[in-house]
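User:
I would dearly like some help making sense of a protein record. Take your time, and here it is.
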Amino acid sequence: MLPGLSFAVPLFGLLAEPVSVAHYLVVGAILFVSGIVCMAIKRNALGVLMGIELVLNGANVNFVAFASPYLQGAGSRSLGLDGQVIAVFVILLAAAEAAVALAITLNFYNNHATVDVDRADDLKG
């Protein structure tokens, strides 16, 4: 053991453990929950958009994890690419959603001089 690195011993034990589907599900859940929290506490429209992207990426990780060959039946002839295909479609959808949302945010900023989502219900006139 290296001197002064006593904290690293448990870390090396975690790295020696094989990565299972449960690890991917935990990462996906962390991404999903952090996105929900980000959407709930951010007042900035860009922060809310980042939260939406985190939620979508957490869902993508879970799609890929659930489509792994380890979770399929013994006689299954599937390649296990269902989750990857769904994840690609979600990524394409997220890119289109981000482009439209950023255009709306830019238009809102030009009209209100702020991107605070609490001001979105104020009508001009």
Q: What stands out?
A: The chain has a mean pLDDT of 83. The first helix runs from residue 8 to 16.
